[in-house]
Amino acid sequence: MNSTVLFRMNGVAPGFLREYGCRNCSQCSSEKPQAHISASLLIKNSWRQRRSLRYHILFDCGMGAIDSLIDFGAPPVDFVFISHGHPYHSLGLDRLVWGQVRHGGPQQISVYCTKETMETGPQRIYPWFFEGSKPKLVAESVEMRIPKCLDLGINLCITPVSAYQGLSAPGAVIWVVEFGHRDSETYHKFVLGWEFIHFIPRFPKEEEDSSYQGEMSGVEHLHEAYEELFKNVEELFFDGNTITSRPETHHMSIENALYFLIPEINPKRTWIVHYSGHEDPEGPLSDEQLQNWVDRTKLNQGMVDTDIHVAKHGMLLAYDV
Questions:
Q1: What is the pTM of this model?
Q2: Strands (E), the chain
Q3: CATH number for the domain including 103?
Q4: In the Cβ-directed half-sphere of 114, how many Cα atoms lie within 13 Å?
Q5: How far apart are CA 240 and CA 254, in angstroms?
Q6: What are the tens digits of pLDDT across the range 45-92?
């Protein structure tokens, strides 16, 4: 084992972090640091030697992400993967780029996303970074279901999967992240479903609702369409914006994930991110209340052995590769 991979949740909050005008819920009244959903994959030669870091991959760079990285003492970022073009997934890029340059970091960062996301997101917000200036961002397009493998010494491949996140987010994706040596204990697979309501195409078993966009796939199970991609998933992060189904928000609900997504993917562990709850009839729950609700619902649905947790700001997962 030559490397350690550290996965950190830089933020787990919904798009608006705290709702303007809300004073009652624990989320909006809290003074705790918050950041929109973002994560870092840090590749190190040794877990105990902080200076041994080799690469830093950032998944989305929205509101609060840079403050979270500063609080953690994170090293410079080498690569950024953007899930879709909504501004709050890339609003931190300007601060990231200039901050790194002023403090000895790289003057060039590769940004990976679909062509549609690049045009509606980073290139639209920060065109000067892509027009030959220094520092600069380098646009790297990805294609659906085609792995982007980076030569970083851990057999890292990141595969985009088409997802629906509203008509204002063309080219939206979730990421399947794989690293380590296949057929060994060093192999790990994550699914990062930051924001989406369903895959494209969607599946007949999913709730049929006129608010859902896109044609049905004609297959009942995920594995019929995605073959090996969603097998042996170790960590599933999914967009649980509300408890009850609210397709008009263009986000998956926790109820729908428990009914369809989690049983289909069958990960070893599942993490809820992007929880808001403001659209639920009962309003937002605290993290503790939400975890209690999940635990009770698992019991009622015969999912006692299913490992599901509310993700926390700053949580860390470490792996030897």
A1: 0.94
A2: 4-11, 38-44, 53-59, 79-81, 108-113, 136-141, 148-150, 156-164, 173-179, 188-193, 198-199, 235-239, 269-273, 308-310, 316-320
A3: 3.60.15.10
A4: 23
A5: 5
A6: 754 555 566 899 999 999 999 999 999 999 999 999 999 999 989 999
Among 230, 238, 237, residue whose Cα is nearest residue 265: 230
Cα dist from 300 to 31, 237, 240, 247, 304, whole Å: 35, 22, 19, 24, 8
Q: What total number of domains does the chain contain?
A: 1
**Each residue's pLDDT tens digit, 132-177:** 777 889 999 999 999 999 999 899 999 999 999 988 999 999 999 9
Using CA atoms, how far apart are residues 44 and 179, in angstroms rounded to an integer?
Answer: 13
Strands 188-193, 173-179: pairing is: antiparallel
Tokens of 268: 């070893």
Range of the domain at 82: 4-320
Residue 317 buriedness (CB in 10 A; 0-12 / 13-18 / 19+): middle
What secondary structure letter does DSSP report for 263? H
- Would you tell me the crossing angle of helices 65-72 and 93-102 to the nearest 10 degrees? 40
Q: How far is it, in rounded angstroms, from Cα 249 to Cα 238?
A: 15
